[in-house]
Structure formats: structure tokens, C-alpha cells
Amino acid sequence: MCASCLNVNKIVIIATFYRNPERPSEMRNEEKHALRRELRGRRSQMGWDVRAAATVKINRLLKRYIKHGRKIGVYWPMGKELRLDGFVRAAQKRGAKLYLPYIEPRSRRMWFTPYPESGMERERIRGRARLNVPQFAGRKIRVHGLSVLLVPLVGIDREGYRLGQAGGYYDATLAAMKYRLQAKTVGVGFACQLVDRLSVEAHDLPLDGFVSEAGILCF
Q1: Fewest C-beta in 10 Å: which of 62, 135, 149, 205?
Q2: Which residues are annotated as a binding site for substrate?
Q3: Which CATH number belongs to the domain containing residue 126 in this structure?
């Protein structure tokens, strides 16, 4: 069980799931596209007030990962992805070191560069998934240099397997971390993005947890 699941307050719903070795066969591309459309539709249908309340609660739950000096990977939200504004402000105030993804040309494996204290200054769009990729000065590190990585997602199942935007950047980055000192990987999103089971491919790695407005799940 991950440490974040211990000694939590009563507003958090906690569950630990054990992985079933019998996984569904791989999805065809058109099936994945259809599932992404469905899950994005669920997220888009959230009312403004419901979404705002959920965002506040998720950002509050994420604060348990903050520790002075801890290196935490965050992301700049695209589209309807969960915003991390409250978490970022709290982490900067408490002395955590935040990092944003950086994608070099002709590569899917991400670096991470320091998050500027002044916030987002500029963005670039690259890749067929049209990912917003911040470009900042500062010493870049690989994912295994982080203590915690907050991972955006389109969907996640009850064993921690993630469905992303289809760009493959997080998949390639997490796969490269497989045999090295690992950061704790925490998926973040809304409860409507949780599904019972996703099909997986050989290179897919499950996340360590998922934080939504419903609480924290540990895998």
C-alpha cells in the first residue's frame, strides 16, 4: 500500500486493488478512439459548479504529496484536463520543487524542467496529439529524478492502467523508468474517468495511484 493511503482523513475514500494477470486483449485503434471520445464526453458533461467543486477537492487531496524540497512532476492542463492551480500554489509555498514536461524534437521520452515561479509564460504545440509543451530554461532532469509524478489521463481502470491522449509521451517516459529508481506515479482526474478495466499492451505500466474527487485509490 502506498504511503499516501495511510492516516488519511475521513473525507477520503481509500481502496487498494490487486492486479489480475488475465487482462483483456489489445484494443484496436478505432476502439481506443471511441473510448477516448466517450470518456472525454463524460468529462465535458460535468456542470461548471460540479467541476469547480471537484477541482478544489482534488487539489486539496493532492497536498498530502507535498514535502519541502521534494521534486514533483506536474503538467500544464490541455483542454478539459484537471487544473492543478491550487496544488501548485501550495507546493511552491511549502518549498517543494515543481517540474514540467519538456519534449525534444524526434523523441517521445520526456525531460522535466523547473516550473517557473511566475507561472506559465509560453507554450508550444507539437505532436499529433497536439500536446501543449512548455519550454523553459533551467536544468532538466529525467523522470527517475522525481519523487512524485502527477500524470494527466483520459481514463484509468481499477488496476491502475491508464488511457492517455494517444501521443505516447507518458508511456515512453514511464517505460524508460521501469528498471531504475522510480518516482511514485499518481494519476489525477475526475471520478467519471475511472472504468472497470482497460486493455493493455506489453509496454504499458500501471500507475501507483489515482486521485479524484471521490478520494485516493492505491494500486
Answers
A1: 135
A2: 81
A3: 3.40.50.10420
- The annotation places the binding site at 32-36, 81, 162-170
Place of cell 472525454: 40
Provide the strand spans (E) within 81-163.
97-102, 111-114, 124-126, 131-133, 148-151, 155-157, 162-163
User: Within a domain: residue 55?
Assistant: yes
Confidence of residue 7 (pLDDT cuts 50, 70, 90): very low
Helix (H, G, I), strand (E, B) or coil at 77: coil
Dig out the grid coordinates for 25 from the structure: 486483449
Helix 48-62 to helix 85-93 angle, to the nearest 10 degrees?
30
Tens-place pLDDT, residues 175-203: 877 777 678 999 999 999 999 999 888 87
Is residue 21 in some structural domain? no
Binding positions for ATP are 32-36, 162-170
Confidence (pTM): 0.82
Asked if the structure places residue 77 within a domain, the reply is yes
Q: Please compute the mean of the pLDDT values over residues 146-165 and round it to a whole number.
A: 95
* Alpha carbon distance 162, 43 (integer Å): 16
